[in-house]
Amino acid sequence: MEPKQIHTYVCIALFCMVISVSSIVVKIATILPADNSRIFSIDRVTPAIQMAIDELSNNYTLVENLTFSVEYANSQCSIAEGINQAIDFYINKKVDAFFGPVCDYAVAPVARQTRFWNIPLISGGAMARDFAIYRKSQYPKLTRVGPVNFNSLSDFFVKLFRHSGWKSLKILYNREGHANVFEDFCHLCVEAIHYDIIEKAREIKQDYFRLDEKTDLRTILLEEVGNTFGDF
């Protein structure tokens, strides 16, 4: 084949590629709570997604032939409703990538299912310890983009205690604390710290006590903390 013919075929192939790319619509299914008491509600996140799309469209030639279509659904931060909305997007062929859910109980079943659908899922949540432990086996399509997760928090505690030479840890927590983030936020946080310290730093003695609305903090500090967990 003559070089001129090769050049012609390459040009035709590139032209066809551009034509095909220009027709691509990237469908983003965003599953978040509609409740604005949540820090990552649909109303709070929508402007950020639109800003990202505008930034990509205006400044990056790699996506100049792509169109982004974003649809939203209310997860209700529910273990049932999150997967229900995800299935609806999937069976109606309305998703190339999932943004959310974010609440841990809502994102878990969706993240497990996406490995069978071969669809990526990006979440600012998925903070619980299990998402890291079972990353490859159960959540291979999940990418966590939050500023922190409970695994990094437990790593911080281990490094802090070793640096300071501390040997005892007492955790006082309210299971319903920070419920505006998601249900059982503090419970899952303490669980991660507890088991990670057992796994990574057995030399640290630890205990925990669950608070409730009727708890008298002065009494608890005297009875549960006292001098046992003080550093003198």
- What's the mean pLDDT score? 80
Radius of gyration: 24 Å
Outline type? elongated
Count of spatially separate domains? 2
Instruction: State the separation between the terminal residues, measured CA to CA.
Output: 85 Å
Q: In this structure, how is the largest beta sheet organized?
A: 5 strands, parallel
| Structural class label | alpha/beta
Helix run count:
8
String of helices and strands = HEHEHEHEHEHEHEH
CATH homologous superfamily placement of the largest domain: Response regulator
The stretches of 5 or more residues where confidence is low (pLDDT under 50) are 1-21
Q: Which fold name fills CATH's third level, the topology of the largest domain?
A: Rossmann fold
Summarize the structure.
By secondary structure, this protein is an alpha/beta fold.
Any overview of this molecule?
By secondary structure, the protein is of the alpha/beta class. The chain folds into two domains: 3-144, Response regulator (Rossmann fold, 3-Layer(aba) Sandwich), CATH 3.40.50.2300; 150-225, Rossmann fold, CATH 3.40.50.2300. It is built from eight helices and seven strands, in the order αβαβαβαβαβαβαβα. It has helices spanning 3-22, 42-59, 79-91, 104-117, 130-133, 150-164, 185-200, 217-225, and strands at residues 25-32, 67-74, 97-99, 121-123, 142-144, 168-174, 205-211. Strands 2-1-3-4-5 form a five-stranded parallel β-sheet, with helices on both faces. α3 runs parallel beside α4 (104-117) and α6 (150-164) crosses α7 (185-200).
